[in-house]
Task: inverse folding
């Protein structure tokens, strides 16, 4: 996927899908791969209904065991994102993620977030935080190779901390410093981290830092999200709110 231009990515994925449909039988493994890629696009722009449709179609193809497992993991991830939290799905996703090595380890990171969110939803916030720190410690054994994974887990921890806790901004700042070194890979995640920091400073009435981080988030997000996407609207709304208080 072209990380800095998801609209262009969707165009290319659809083009590849149409070509493959003409050349291959309907449930060929390459068709499954194309459907999974389109599902990934809809997942990142948070259209989970469409993402689920493409993942379920991909699951019907003749996938190799690894591809089949990845599609199943994507479905497990989409299920809780639709707010239908289920302990079985969250634990199943986490266990599956241990068996598959993926570039950037993104499936495992998402499964960690799902399980942390589940604990938090059950009123076990400290258990969620402890679980994340335990997972973080595994990646910290080889920090130079795991900067992206570490940054993502730090952001999960940042979401769990209350705004009144100084540790919130500490973990978010650390995450952003790691992401800046890998922004070409984690464009959207960097924007999200900037937005989270902007929200924190806004709630602390530190307008200059809030505005600077919110503007950086908007600058990045404009490059990757469709016009009028809810994430762009949310970011602009925060900026307008900060400006009104200056």
Result:
């Amino acid at each position: 996927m072209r990380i800095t231009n998801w609209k262009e990515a969707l165009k290319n994925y659809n083009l590849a899908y149409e070509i493959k449909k003409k050349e291959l039988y309907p449930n060929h493994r390459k068709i499954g791969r194309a459907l999974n890629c389109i599902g990934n696009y809809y997942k990142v722009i948070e259209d989970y209904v469409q993402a689920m449709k493409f993942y379920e179609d991909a699951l019907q193809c003749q996938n190799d065991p690894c591809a089949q497992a990845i599609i199943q993991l994507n479905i497990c991830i989409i299920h809780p994102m639709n707010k239908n939290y289920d302990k079985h799905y969250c634990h199943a996703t986490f266990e599956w993620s241990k068996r598959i090595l993926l570039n950037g380890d993104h499936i495992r990171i998402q499964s960690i977030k799902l399980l942390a969110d589940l604990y938090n939803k059950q009123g076990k916030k400290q258990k969620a935080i402890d679980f994340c720190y335990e997972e973080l410690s595994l990646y910290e054994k080889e920090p130079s190779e795991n900067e992206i994974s570490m940054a993502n887990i730090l952001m999960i921890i940042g979401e769990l901390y209350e705004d009144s806790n100084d540790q919130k901004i500490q973990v978010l700042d650390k995450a952003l410093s790691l992401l800046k070194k890998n922004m070409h890979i984690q464009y959207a995640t960097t924007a999200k981290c900037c937005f989270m920091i902007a929200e924190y400073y806004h709630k602390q009435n530190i307008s200059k830092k809030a505005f600077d981080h919110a503007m950086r988030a908007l600058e990045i997000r404009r490059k990757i999200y469709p016009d009028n996407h809810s994430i762009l609207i949310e970011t602009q709304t925060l900026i307008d709110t900060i400006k009104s208080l200056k």
